[in-house]
Amino acid sequence: MVIPDTFSGDVDNSNRVLEQYSEDTSIFKIRPELVVYPKNVADLHTLIHYVHTRRGELSLTARSAGTDMSGGPLSSSIVVDFLRYFNQILEVNTVHATTQPGVFYRDFEKATLKHGVIMPSYTASRELNTVGGMVANNSAGEKSLTYGKTERYVHTLKVVLQDGIEYEFKRLTRTELEAKKSQANYEGEIYRRVEGLIHQHHDAIKSAKPIVSKNSAGYGIWNVWDETTDTFDMTQLFVGSQGTLGLISEITFNLVKPKPASRMLVLFLRPKHFAQLGKIVNAVLAHKPESFESYDDKTFNVMLRVFPKLFWRLGGNPFTLLRDFWPEIKLVFQGGIPKLVLMAEFAADTETEAALMAKQAELSIKSFGVSSHITKNQSEAQKFWTIRRESFKLLRENVSDKHTAPFIDDFVVLPEHLPEFLPRLYAILDEYNLLYTVAGHVGDGNFHIIPLMDFSRPDFIQIINKLSERVYTLVGEFHGSITGEHNDGLIRTPYLHKMFSPEILNVFQEIKEIFDPHRIFNPHKKVDADMQYLRSAIKSQS
């Protein structure tokens, strides 16, 4: 494979690099033919035209940090790395920030905080992921209960489409949309066809929009046309599209000013409280926590198992830790390990206001007989975040014969369904004798289950197939989403039929056809699912 001389970036097909780019954080391994590092938009144009000359043989898959858990940035063809050169923050003010996609979120946040603002849909991997990956997956995190997902913060996108030209997309008024549609070129055709598709399938699209608060499954066609304001925003198709419609070259984000003070209300639920879980969650939500997270008894057990190492991550002072963990120690002595721990963090302009909000929420759940604790300061709250974020990571590091297997890691159901949903979920999981924890964003009903599995088991692939089928069928029963923030990728695209009707799946195919008729952008994700390809891509069981 010889990239044209007009390409000014770097090209690498060394064994070391191809091995590095054959994995993300998913269960898949796919070795690319080539990794390229474009320096500018002209290079993206060159790559697209080159791939067109070998149509049907080659494709382009965008990649930045490679923290994706769904197999999204993996390809057997050409991987386009945006991390090396597309990594500049171009402009920041108190309202917007313009950046290239290969910028790490950690660096982006440092730049925005200088102006007292943030882009609040950051993920748990905020120190590792890039902003381009956040857009590609429509990412979310602990603050998304209040602030929403990445889709809410994308103001403008520049995208290089299949004709090799960079286009700018943003929210348009009706007058602006009609002007776009009147153009006798490819851009005009795109706007005419997308609007026509929306009107043709209007009722089906409207009813297909997931009723849960978070969703990254499919294409966000239901967010493009706002009937109330009669505005048309094509960025909503690209957000969460995993690079399957074009190559994003520049992003302008909307920014918000974060609240400076916070207090956390921690609830310790026993099995007897499970029947009231939905009511407890909604009672707390009525007081508008900024975030509402959870972890289960398995996570608590993991914490005990790895406590010596967790001890050092929490500061290493035994007297401080004994004081900070005294509520949990006392709880265990009194009635054993809680079945579920809920963490509601309330943010305000002052510490007094935040403490009052937490106290009012605590009083609202008093009738349920739930043990509770309000943290006194941010450092005390940090221990709960550390348990939530670090325990499973430590367990993974200390179990040598098993590996993380994210494949049912991101489903969403309405919180009021949790008392019925969770016991049925546990019953399914326990049939397979897996080591796993359940943690997530309980305020959104968004849970992450990542089993530790022995990839050498003869029935490893069979377990993944059977469990995925059963869990996503259960999610479908409750009208939930199979992915709230991690997206479809290779792992979930075959299960989109659990969420969407044949008509909507055909709409997704039409969107792909409009933007990528020759399938040059990131194949086998979002549409064109191939179970045989999926199975063959799972990491070697040797």
Automatic annotation (TrEMBL):
Domain of life: Bacteria
BP terms from Gene Ontology: lactate catabolic process
Enzyme class: oxidoreductase
EC number(s) recorded for this UniProt protein: 1.1.2.4
Ranges annotated as spanning the membrane: none
The keyword Transit peptide is annotated on this UniProt entry: yes
Cofactor section: FAD
FAD-binding PCMH-type domain: residues covered: 28-258
SUPFAM superfamilies the UniProt entry points to: FAD-binding/transporter-associated domain-like, FAD-linked oxidases, C-terminal domain
Keywords linked to the UniProt accession: FAD, Flavoprotein, Oxidoreductase, Transit peptide
One GO MF term: FAD binding
PANTHER family: D-LACTATE DEHYDROGENASE (PTHR11748), D-LACTATE DEHYDROGENASE, MITOCHONDRIAL-RELATED (PTHR11748:SF111)
Family: Belongs to the FAD-binding oxidoreductase/transferase type 4 family.
UniProt-recorded name of the protein: D-lactate dehydrogenase (cytochrome)
